[in-house]
């Protein structure tokens, strides 16, 4: 598979009341196709959040946005553009980072979490700040069951 230069193609989700910012590394192919976060059907992000906050798993983009904002959660990715092969985080090169001040100056962010190792490493490298690392909800992180992810995320987000 060939490496291509890709630009992040959708906006962050947040409002003035957002308190928690969850950052991924860069959207998967499926997320880029759907123009929204965690679009791969096997990614457990939406199931984990529904497990933490209760309620139905949001399905449509408007439902997902409303769910996030209702729970004061902002979502974005560390990377604005990069060279990448498919959805492979390990192939990411030539990174341009997003300007996190877009959210920080317009929301009440109190805690920032990385969804997985790559988001954590890239945020520290390009933003130079500390961030709390959560286990990845990616299907590639098969060592973590949905129940274990939900417990780990819930204990950290609700701490």
Describe the structure.
With 159 residues, this protein is α/β, with parallel strands linked by helices. The chain contains six helices and seven strands, in the order ββαααβββαβαβα. It has helices at 29-34, 45-53, 61-70, 101-104, 117-127, 146-157; strands at residues 3-7, 20-24, 73-77, 79-85, 93-97, 111-115, 132-134. The strands form two sheets. The protein has a four-stranded parallel beta sheet with strand order 3-2-6-7. A three-stranded antiparallel beta sheet has the order 1-4-5, covered by helices on one side. Helix 2 (45-53) crosses helix 6. The termini are far apart. The mean pLDDT is 95.
Mean pLDDT: 95
Q: Helix-strand pattern, N to C? A: EEHHHEEEHEHEH
| Low-confidence region ranges | none
| Shape summary | globular
In total, the number of strands is 7
The CA-CA distance between the termini, in Å, is 42 Å
Largest sheet: 4 strands, parallel
Secondary structural class: alpha/beta
Which percent bin holds the helix content?
25-40%
- Strand % is 15-25%
How are the strands of the biggest sheet laid out side by side? 3-2-6-7
Count of alpha and pi helical runs: 6
Radius of gyration of CA atoms, rounded to a whole number: 15 Å
Summarize the structure.
The chain is of the alpha/beta class and 159 residues long.
Write the layout of secondary structure elements.
Elements: E1 3-7, E2 20-24, H1 29-34, H2 45-53, H3 61-70, E3 73-77, E4 79-85, E5 93-97, H4 101-104, E6 111-115, H5 117-127, E7 132-134, H6 146-157
Helix pairs in contact: 2-6
């Amino acid at each position: 598979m060939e490496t291509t230069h890709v630009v992040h193609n959708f906006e962050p989700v947040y409002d003035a009341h957002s308190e928690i910012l969850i950052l991924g590394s860069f959207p998967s192919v499926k997320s880029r196709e759907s123009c929204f976060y965690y679009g791969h059907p096997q990614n457990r992000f939406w199931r984990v959040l529904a497990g933490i906050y209760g309620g139905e798993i949001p399905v449509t983009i408007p439902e997902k946005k409303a769910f996030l904002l209702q729970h004061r959660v902002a979502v974005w990715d560390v990377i604005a553009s990069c060279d990448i092969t498919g959805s492979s985080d390990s192939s990411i090169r030539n990174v341009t980072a997003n300007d996190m001040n877009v959210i920080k100056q317009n929301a009440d962010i109190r805690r920032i979490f990385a969804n997985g190792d790559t988001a954590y490493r890239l945020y520290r490298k390009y933003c130079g700040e500390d961030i709390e690392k959560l286990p990845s909800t990616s299907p590639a992180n098969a060592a973590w069951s949905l129940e274990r992810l939900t417990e780990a995320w819930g204990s950290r987000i609700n701490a």
